[in-house]
Each structure stands twice: as C-alpha cells, then as structure tokens.
Amino acid sequence: MVGGKRWCFGNQSSGDDVADFDPILLVSGIGGTILNSKLKSCFGLTTRIWVRILLADMEFRKRAWSLYNPDTGYTEALDDSSDIVVPQDDYGLYAIDILDPSLLIKCLQVTDVYYFHDMIDMLIKYGYKKGTTLFGYGYDFRQSNRTDQAMDGLEEKLETAYKASGGRKVNLISHSMGGLLVSCFISLHSDVFSKYVNKWISIATPFQGAPGYINDSLLTGLQFVEGLESYFFVSRWSMHQLLVECPSIYEMLPNPEFQWKKQPEIVVWRNRSENGQDSARLETYDPSGCVGLFEEALKDNEIEYNKKTIPLPFNLSIYKWAATTRKMLNSVQLPEGIDFYNIYGTSLDTPFDVCYGSETDPINDPSEICHSLPEYSYVDGDATVPAESAMADGFPAIERVGIPCAHRTLLRDENVFEYIRKWLGIEEQRSTRVKTSKVVDVDLA
C-alpha cells in the first residue's frame, strides 16, 4: 500500500443495510437555509426570498425586511400578508443544499449559493440514504439561536432521525452559526441532547464571535455573493436593514468576556473642532464600548416601506437579549458521552479590527459610517471567522483540526470530507459491506 490510501471498486451491498450507519443531521449556519414567503391567502402560494438571484433585491425588501418584537423575542416580517417559512422537502435537505435551486443557477454552477450540496453528495456516495440515515435542519436564521421555534425544530429533527434509523443515536454536523444554535440547545435541553446525539462535528463555528465581520455587518451591512453575481443579488444596503433587526447577528458579536490575544476594536477617525480648528482624532472602541458607537451611527437609520418611513436604529432590546444568549454560551457544558470534533479554517486574512474614516478624510458625523467602506486589520482564519474564535469551543474535544480553507468552501473541501469520514468511521463501515472488490493502491502524496 502506497500513501496510506485504499480504494475499493466492485459490487456494493444493496441499500437494505444502510442502518449500519448512525444517522447524520446537517445543521446550517446564518444565510444557509432557503426561506420562502408564504401568502396567508391565495391557497398559500410561496415565493423564494432567500436565496435568489433574479429579482432578489426587490423581493427581499418587500417580504424579508422585519422588525423585532421584544414581547415575543421574535423578528416579524413587515409584510403582514405572508409568513416566512422554511421548506421541509427531502427530509430537510432541500433547504440547505443549493440555496437558489433554479435551473439557471445549476447550469451556471454559481458555487456561492451551493451550501451543503457537495457534502450531501459525498455522504450519499458512501451509502447514506435520505430519510433513513441522512437529514437536514434549516431554520429561520433571522431569529435568535435560542428561540422555542429553533429549539423545538432541532429536537423534532433529532427525534425523527433517531426513530427512522431504528433507534440509533445521531451524528450532528453543524456549520458556522449552526454550532451556536447547537450550543444553545445543549444549554437548554442537555438531557434531550444526551438521549439523541452520539457525535458532534462543528465546522467554522464563531464560538467567541466574528469581530470584524459582525461589527461591520451592523454598521454597513454585508454582501453575501461576491463578484459579477452580486449585481443580481440582494444589495449590501438592503441586507444591512435586515441585519439591524436580527437577533442572530447580535449573538455573534465578539464575546467581551473571552480572553482574546488582542481585544477586537472598532477604530474611527473623527473630525473634532476646538477653538475654531478642525483636527482628526482617532477613537477606539472595545467590545463593550461599541454599543455607544452603534447607537450614534444608527440613530438616523430608516427605511421606506409601503410609503411609510420606519426608523431602524441600533436595537438595545435585541442587544440585551443577545447578552443573555452570550451568558448561556459562556457556561454551556458538553454532556458526558458525547464525542466532539472541531474543524476550523486557517491561512486566510480574516477581518478583526475595523476602521472607518482616515486621518486625511475623517468622519464628521457617526451616521456617515453606515455609508462608508471599512478598512480592516486581519488575523488568521477562514476570511470570516478568526481561527482564535473557532478554536475556542470550551469543550473537551476529541480532536481539533485547522484546514487552509474559506468559510463556506470548508463544506466542499476534500480534506474536511476525509476527516468526517475518519471520525464517523464511514470508510471502515463501507469496506465491511463490500461483497466483492478489487483493492488498488494509490499514491496521493
């Protein structure tokens, strides 16, 4: 055997013995779930509002823009004629596979909107069967990670996978914010987690937040799709107006209690006048002090919706809710008997500190920040989540692995797949189910 790899060819056993595998449940992150707008009348007609390329910005503003309700803890769509729902087709896998499953996107292979697609294909290739040993959990990622809706939905999926596989415990694979949702579930339902879960593989989870990415998202928004496709997608400004009212974004702010190697900061060059003289001064805000800046910068933020002006300032109610979520995340403990594995991205410049204005062109009023382009200082990570944050899970991990890869690309990286197969024992189980085979030695060095 050369290079330590063995490839098997020949007749595979039938799908009747798929129960040899423990079931897998894939849990998506923020932006990783198809969202539909379903009319409350007209026979419940639905429109996909996330993700779509054609008419994306128009439909997004009309149906996705939302306001947080502090009485319920939920973000509620401004469009009161419809509800936002997650499609449940294909045992939950459809919603987290290709986020714009239109024929055009599939033909053009716009991989920016391919989410768990490659991983689903890989698992099916190795013998997993949808609805028996393979399931997906997508959710309304606008909401807090600890709402009853999110927690009940995850419990239902775990129970479904457990029963469908004949009472075998579930192996969870989460991506990005999905890891925070799982952590909230452990905190609130540790007994249920212990009952249904065998192993948990976390991929690119911002356990301590994503400082540069999230701080800037609250101030200027974000662009989910880059390059030429971005001109056909939701604009950065439209996305910004949604995120200001999204508890999930606030829950990924940098953890002020975490012992960072260097505290993440927002830096602003401000124009100050003294004795009739203007001068640029550098102001620095740490994770706790950022709240005042957010309030100043967003004090005049507003949108026009149905010919009405709706103010969207920094939402202190959401911030307080998110602070409680952070306390939960800081104290959560993995139940005994659960194997935990952590994969995180490395070797890419990842935003950490954010700077607005410059010494030669300072910010005159904080509201100008929302219409400016940031300058970043970078640390090692996956271009979204710093490796320092993703590594700091706080759990007794069986293994932690850093892989040079971007945040979403980790979900289709062959090195990631190799670790998943190793940790779940997929290749070993598959080899015992091969009836006749030829073993070929391959040098992959």
TrEMBL record:
InterPro entries: AB_hydrolase_fold, LACT/PDAT_acylTrfase. One of its GO terms (molecular function) is O-acyltransferase activity. It holds the Pfam family LCAT. Transmembrane segments: none annotated. It comes from the Eukaryota. GO terms for biological process: lipid metabolic process. This is Phospholipase A(1). It comes from Lactuca saligna.
